[in-house]
Amino acid sequence: MSWVYLFLAGLFEIGWAIGLKLSDGFTRPWATAFTVASLVTSMGLLGLALRALPLGTAYAIWTGIGAVGIAIVGMIWFGDGVSLARIVCIGLIVTGIVGLKLAPA
């Protein structure tokens, strides 16, 4: 169940990053509320995952999910640049996430 918590925590990390962008410097109340709720949920789920998972592994995977997810969201919805180099680098992060999941703790 810890891996499920960790995956969900990563998804909520993507959510708070999107909310942070949409909050426009915390000037939009609904986006700000979404950001705070997503952040709290992400941290709470990460905390639950850390009951059973090693800290370094869990934190690296959590940030990796967030980094990959928000990079993809940025390219699709926010007009961030798309290039072969960016795609390759995202692939390297995904490879690292998978490697940490599969490596013995």
Automatic annotation (TrEMBL):
GO terms for biological process: xenobiotic detoxification by transmembrane export across the plasma membrane. Keywords: Cell membrane, Membrane, Transmembrane, Transmembrane helix, Transport. GO terms for molecular function: transmembrane transporter activity. Pfam families: Multi_Drug_Res (PF00893). Gene3D superfamilies: 1.10.3730.20. InterPro entries: EmrE-like, Small_drug/metabolite_transptr, Small_multidrug_res. It is a multi-pass membrane protein. PANTHER family: GUANIDINIUM EXPORTER, SMR FAMILY PROTON-DEPENDENT DRUG EFFLUX TRANSPORTER SUGE. Belongs to the drug/metabolite transporter (DMT) superfamily. Small multidrug resistance (SMR) (TC 2.A.7.1) family. Gdx/SugE subfamily. This is Guanidinium exporter.
